[in-house]
Amino acid sequence: MIFQRKNWVVPKGQEPTEMDKKVLYWQNKGKLVPRRGLILTPGQIDGIRQAGVINTAILDLVGEKIHAGMSTAEIDKLVYDYTISHNATPACLGYEGFPKSCCTSINEEVCHGIPSDDIILEEGDIINVDCTTILNGYFADASRMFIIGKTTPEKENLVRVAKECLEVGMKAAKPYSFVGDIGNAIQTHAHKNGCTVVRDLCGHGVGLKFHDEPEVLHYGRKGTGMLLVPGMVFTIEPMVNLGDWHVFIDADNNWTVITEDELPSAQWEHTFVMTENGVEILTH
Ligand code: MF3
Ligand code: CO
Ligand code: CO
Questions:
Q1: Rounded mean pLDDT, 99-104
Q2: What is the DSSP string of 35-65?
Q3: What is the pLDDT of residues 133-173, one digit of tens each?
Q4: With a 6 A CB cut-off, is 110 part of the ligand 1 pocket?
Q5: Has this prediction a pTM greater than 0.70?
Q6: Which of 44, 47, 48, 200 could serve as 207's disulfide partner, Cβ 3.0–4.6 Å?
Q7: Pocket lining: 237 vs ligand 1, CB cutoff 6 Å
């Protein structure tokens, strides 16, 4: 038995609420529960929702403009210009030294691809554009896949399965369920479709900062990981591979994550808030 830190504390002199009782029940059973600070207020959630509106408009704009022959630096410029002109900030720019305003990851690149003048989109490429927007101090994080022209049936299928993985993960995320329920649903769906799930990177709490608790693994067992409580805001962002799940980091830039077997990878991401009835998407 692993003894978890007792994150949930009822303030002194206060009667436990219904939420307190539910969380304490699981905490007393030794489960990992959030600290109270991860339960955001309606005002904070609204701030994240507003950041999400800008974030969605950016990805919509990328979807309109993306085409074969375009460089990934041009995508980055679209993201930067739109963000700045809407009084927002691109969270990626300067984050732990990341040099650009979004991540652009093509084919066998899993995530954290760096936009460049030298990377030109070609017919048949599949690309993930991942963008995080800060508005009034609130963070919204989402990514989508774009198919450049016509691609192979395998890549098209992979993009679809990855999207479905996000959807099944979202449906598995119920109030007072566990993060592991999300990962288990995603893994099951990926495997059923002959795909694998990257293990080295995960979804995350988001909203007041870029990366917070909980860690949202996209694989694993039901009932493991942190308890999901209404008011928590987090991403689900499965990275799904056509081949093996193993990845490495490009030694040339120390950022880009690439599949070991160099087979393609696809990812979709949304920011969600947990409610009493399931998750609500804050980035669409
Ligand atoms: N947006 C990514 C995520 O989904 C993180 C990118 S960090 C960066 O968590 F530095 F590479 F931009
Ligand atoms: Co994210
Ligand atoms: Co992201």
A1: 99
A2: -GGGS--HHHHHHHHHHHHHHHHHHHHHHHH
A3: 999 999 999 999 999 999 999 999 999 999 999 999 999 99
A4: no
A5: yes
A6: 48
A7: yes
At 121, phi and psi to the nearest 5?
-70, 135
Å from CA of 103 to ligand 1 middle: 7
Domain boundaries, the chain: 38-281
pLDDT digits (tens, 9 = 90+) for 244-277: 999 999 999 999 999 999 999 999 999 999 999 9
Could you write out the DSSP letters of every residue in 204-260? EE-SSSSSEEEEE-SSS-TT-SBBP-TT-EEEE--EEESS-S-EEE-TTTS--EEET
- Identify residue 111 by its one-letter amino acid code: C
Question: What is the position in ligand 1's atom list of the atom closest to the CA of 98?
Answer: 10
Q: Is 109 in the pocket of ligand 1 (CB under 6 A)?
A: no
Amino acid at 244: D
Pick the CATH number of 38-281 from 3.90.230.10, 2.30.30.100, 1.10.10.410, 2.60.40.10: 3.90.230.10
Mean pLDDT within 55-84: 98
d(CA 163, CA 144): 9
